[in-house]
Amino acid sequence: MTAKYRIKDTFIITGRGLVLAGTIEEGVVVTGDYIEFDAFEKKRKRRIIGVSSMRKADDKEMNVGLLIKCDNEDEILELRKWRPENELGIIVKE
Q1: Which domain of life is it from (predicted)?
Q2: Which CATH number does 3-92 carry?
Q3: What 8-state DSSP symbol labels residue 14?
């Protein structure tokens, strides 16, 4: 394990794919790592193909978006409907 990531939401970037939105609780996340998480009672492991972050001026937490490689368009649409409720994702190297 290289990091822990708290998943708070998901959204789609048209033409790019699905983004997991949340915060890094510990460690470092880089493009090429994998995230392991449970969604709809199914364990998933997906490659991180993009990382972006932003912080609002009045916010102490750094919000981080992880663009992940999904298996297909159906999975992107399925995960967009998922409500993660602070699901913990584990970041690993392959």
Answers
A1: Bacteria
A2: 2.40.30.10
A3: T
